[in-house]
Amino acid sequence: xxxxxxxxxxxxxxxxxxxxxxxxxxxxxxxxxxxxxxxxxxxxxxxxxxxxxxxxxxxxxxxxxxxxxxxxxxxxxxxxxxxxxxxxxxxxxxxxxxxxxxxxxxxxxxxxxxxxxxxxxxxxxxxxxxxxxxxxxxxxxxxxxxxxxxxxxxxxxxxxxxxxxxxxxxxxxx
Length: 174
Hints:
mainly alpha
């Protein structure tokens, strides 16, 4: 978002306005994703797992839309979609972890989950930064499209896992 705001859609001093617009779009998506999903799903483990699949799918589509870079509004729509999916995934995976992890292990499981999130964020930032430095900001569309392709890997993995899941998620494990 920072590169798009400061080098491609520069609004305000050094892109500060466009960056604010992008962060606002991300915030809207992060709130909308779980709000919409909560209004639709039944709260069962099976339903939460299916919504996680939807989260992965909408993230991939969001990255494809961001990669179009045809205008500020289009990028904002992609950012909203990407944030919706990520927020649904984070929220519902946390709910499933809380429901299925025994009380005595819950803190450790959440610590590991949080650590892995930040490790993944660091790697993604390093990879995107290296790609932008190597390919240049004029190739941000290709970087967005490539990220969409890579983001389909967890979607495919989760699709495979959903087909294999047979047991219901235990409610109130502990």
